[in-house]
UniProtKB/TrEMBL annotation:
InterPro entries xrefs: DUF7318
Transmembrane segments: 21-46, 58-77
Keywords: Membrane, Transmembrane, Transmembrane helix
Protein name: Uncharacterized protein
Superkingdom of source: Archaea
Length: 128
C-alpha cells in the first residue's frame, strides 16, 4: 500500500507485518532458553563460580550466549511483527542545519570579547 502524497510526514509505503506462527513459536522457545541461561548465570554468580579461572570464563560464555539469544529474539520480532513503513522526509542541504540563510554560510560576528568567542565555539547554534 502506498500513497502519492509528497508532503512532510505522509506515509509513502506501508507493508504490514507477516506475523507468522513459526516466528512466534521460535520467539517463545528462545525466551525459554533465555530464562534458563539467566538462571544459570545467576546461580553461578551466587555460588561463586567466578572465583576460579575456568568458572569465570564459563560465566563470561554464558553471559555472551544470553546476549546473542536476546539479539535473535529482537531480530525475529523486528522482522516478523513490525510493519515496514516509509515516510516522506524533508530533504535539506548541508548548510541548512547550521545557518539560517544561504548568505550566512561564512557565519556572522557574534561578539568581540573572548568569553563570547568561547560561547560561540562551544555552542555554535546559539540564538539561531
Amino acid at each position: 500500500m502506498s500513497s502519492s502524497g509528497s508532503t512532510y510526514g505522509d506515509i509513502h509505503r506501508y507493508e504490514p507485518a507477516r506475523e507468522s506462527t513459526a516466528a512466534a513459536i521460535a520467539i517463545v522457545l528462545l525466551a525459554i532458553i533465555e530464562v534458563v541461561f539467566v538462571f544459570m548465570f545467576t546461580y553461578g554468580l551466587v555460588s561463586g563460580w567466578g572465583l576460579s579461572d575456568t568458572g569465570n570464563m564459563f560465566l563470561g560464555g554464558v553471559l555472551a550466549v544470553i546476549f546473542i539469544d536476546l539479539a535473535f529474539i529482537l531480530a525475529l520480532y523486528r522482522k516478523e511483527f513490525l510493519p515496514d513503513v516509509m515516510i516522506v522526509k524533508k530533504r535539506r542541504r548541508k548548510w541548512e542545519d547550521v545557518y539560517i540563510r544561504e548568505d550566512q554560510v561564512e557565519g556572522t560576528e557574534f561578539g568581540t570579547g573572548a568569553w563570547d568567542q568561547v560561547k560561540r565555539a562551544v555552542y555554535p547554534y546559539y540564538k539561531r
